[in-house]
Amino acid sequence: MAYLVTGCAGFIGSHLSERLLEQGEEVIGIDCLTPYYDPRIKRHNLENLTRCKNFTWVEEDLLETNLDEWLRKVDCVFHTAAQPGVRLSWGEEFHTYIRQNLLVTQRLLESIKNSGREIRVVFSSSSSVYGNTNQLPMTESAVPQPFSPYGVTKLSSEHLCLAYHANYRIPVVALRYFTVYGPRQRPDMAFHLFCRSILENKPLTILGDGAQTRDFTYVSDIVAANCAAARRPAEGEVFNIGGGSRISLREVVTLLEEITGRAIPVIHQPSAKGDVRDTWASTEKAQRLLDFRPQVSLREGLERQYAWHRDLQTSQRM
Ligand SMILES: NC(=O)c1ccc[n+]([C@@H]2O[C@H](COP(=O)([O-])OP(=O)(O)OC[C@H]3O[C@@H](n4cnc5c(N)ncnc54)[C@H](O)[C@@H]3O)[C@@H](O)[C@H]2O)c1
Question: What CATH number does residue 163 fall under?
Answer without folding.
Answer: 3.40.50.720
